[in-house]
């Protein structure tokens, strides 16, 4: 029962599926869609403002001190995964719709998650401080690196907005609020930290809002009629294969790099995550006017797979670490 319980989708995943269903049945139209688009921009800005206010200055200092470890994690996130995406691109282009194939490439260019990377590193007995630094740094650098990587890998294809204007808008929408929140941390940090359990729902609500808007617009443009069921199943299989290749490969690289076991665990769980929370807002800007719903679908599938698989792996590693 316990193994089955770990494989059961969590409440947020169920809410995500419910949001996709709602958007498929009742998409926002006309003026409501315009208001929803503006509302999602505001919600995203607030979300990243709070992320900045929650990042301790000590985490930045510690990140500078353990630079070799963080460079390896960033290399796994922004070099290894894009290479895997490029290698898989011919097969993905042949088996999937162009939008889903682009979404798979976009998935490979995304930064790491923050909360789940830290949580799984802690569960497995890894270096939590390093996970905090690396995951936060990855999320911040992703604002710049993800659009740049997509420009490098996909060029102007796949309904991408103008790269330079997209990066500028991403900086305004994500980076500027993040920096503002961090600069105000001496005055509001204690209050934000006290509300940390509540703010988790702010993250999730923002993602659900953006997903509803994206899928609603995609449904109106014929997402489900243009995307055959075999392509959806193949997308899920591609995400599972990507995770199955990446996790052992990242673990092997971490072990061969000579780090202590606690650091190896941090590399594994920070270097194989892809952030839905950062990815959806970036996609909203980067693919403005394009088939956003189909493009973020691989990210949503990978998100659930990484949570289920890493929960099992982290639990087993934690038991091994405790008995050692």
TrEMBL record:
**Source domain of life:** Bacteria
Q: Which UniProt keywords apply?
A: Membrane, Transmembrane, Transmembrane helix
Would I find Zinc among this entry's keywords? Answer: no
Where, by residue number, does the polypeptide cross the bilayer?
40-57, 69-88, 100-121, 128-154, 166-184, 205-226, 232-254
* Pfam assignment, any one: SBF_like
Q: Which GO terms describe its cellular component?
A: plasma membrane
Query: What is the name listed in the Swiss-Prot or TrEMBL entry for this protein?
Result: Bile acid:sodium symporter
